[in-house]
Amino acid sequence: MTRPQAKAGVTEASPLLQADEHKPSYNADTVPIIEESSDGCIIEVVTSSSTTTIENASAKTLTDEEIVSKRLNGASASVVMVGLWIGVGLAALDGSIVAAIYPQIGTEFKRSNEIVWIATMYLLSYTALQPLYGRISDVFGRRTALLFASIVFFIGSAMCGASNDLLTLIVSRTIAGIGGGGLNTMSAVIMSDLVSIRERGKYQGYANVAYSAGSVIGAPLGGIITDSIGWRYCFYINLPLLLLSLYVAICVLTDYNLTENRNTGSFFERLKKIDYLGSLAVVVTVICFLLATSMGGNSRPWSDPLVYGLLIFSFFSGAVFCYIEAKIAEKPLMPWKIITSRTPFACAMTNFFSVMGSMSVTFTTPIFFQGVLGYTTSQASLFFLPKVVALTCGSLSAGYWMARKGEYQKYITFSTSMGMIAMFLTSFWTTDTSFSFIILCLVLDGFSSGSNITTTLVAMLSCVEHSGKMASFFFEFYKLYTFVKHIKETFFFWENITEMATTTSVSYLFRSTGGVVGISVISTVFQGTVKKLLTERITGPNAKEIIEIARKSINEVRTLLPPDALAIVLDTYETAIRYSFYLCVFMSVLCFLSALFIQQFTLASKIK
Known about the structure:
single chain; 3 domains; 3-stranded antiparallel beta sheet; 25 helices; 3 strands
């Protein structure tokens, strides 16, 4: 009997050699081999390097339940999941709750034309540092990374509620975003350690229910809280709810991945594994882009050297980031071998354009309801409730579909086409549009968005696992069975498996970047259109004052402007919103086209 093929059926956090008190001892002539049985369970085989038989081998099989129990020290997986999902929901809530209240905050501070920064700075820090958490958790442990994110988010939320001016609020939102991005990423990373790829879709569906509910319920909840007790409590509400996430990080979780992987090195050696240059490059890229799009056509003309200079430097910094990831970084934020493959890149771009379009609609719709139709903050926020339900249904439907069918390619095509239809219908909104039509558009958009963020992540992870097994197969086929070959083979596969956490971070990077860019671009289109049209339509001695009120105090135009000027302003709002929705249609088309390049891979049914 020839020696069976050695397969690497371990998870990203599993040890190369399982430590167990019942493990048989072996001498220098024996070689431990990590294998996978036909049913997907992990088997550790100890055999002689000089023989081609396994009759004298000793094997120990670990079931999925034993793997999870060992990693959680017997703690309930349900408690861990709930704690993680609460953190995900709160991070998403903090990103969307300003959708309904930012007109009110801008009016209070008399800076409505600049208020978009309280949204974009949160999403910027949320996005820019999010991919770091995958590497940080590999280097310093899952518990340490989650605890850091929870504490920072707690501090940032408290500071937001206590802010007394726009600058302080923007800084506080930036701090909260650093923690929020970590809560979101670590939830996905830890979940990857506890469930199989095939079941991951279902559990990711639950996580996306929390994310989607937080993303969309933030608008109506923010409106109700603002009208009843004030906008500051929209941020204070995070503090008591975050206690369960803190409990999980402090009392339940451990740095189990460091325990399993004993070759962690010293503290300074682990610090060297973090991609600082890549992190700096991606932050500079996004900041320069946001500064350029926020100023261009708003406070400065697009022909201003500062505006186009920032745009040019943004693209240059982006190119530098790609070079760093491909050629310099030892442990890159965005592994080049993954992102340059067809399906992972298609998944990333589908995620990017999907969130870009959906978040753009989320931040444009309140202006339509409040500015054009004249609803109060709480009344306008109620229109988001159907989207919350649709997001939940879309995410769960996608998860159960993949768990049952083991398929995602056709489902992604279906959900992205639905999103394209939703955006197309939304572009027809006017003051005479019926409520039923508006709700239909929001429901279609919500179902599509919830489905997309679930399926693209699972599809991306399945590619990483598949590529690792194929590489291992060809390596096995061409090399001899020697001790040296076994060590190289195990190291090579461990490198692929540790990319699972990083791949999750990359997926979240594209998702968050889509939200940041979407909000920034839509705000630029809206503000630029309003400024241009009002300058053309309103003349006379009071023109400058009227334009200033229309741009900085959207919620008060009905009380501050005379009837003739008000009619012009409201018509201008409607036109600017329609142009913004046209851009959302373009985003949805790009999302659909990106999804067509996604390939189908097998979804494993066992924990790896």
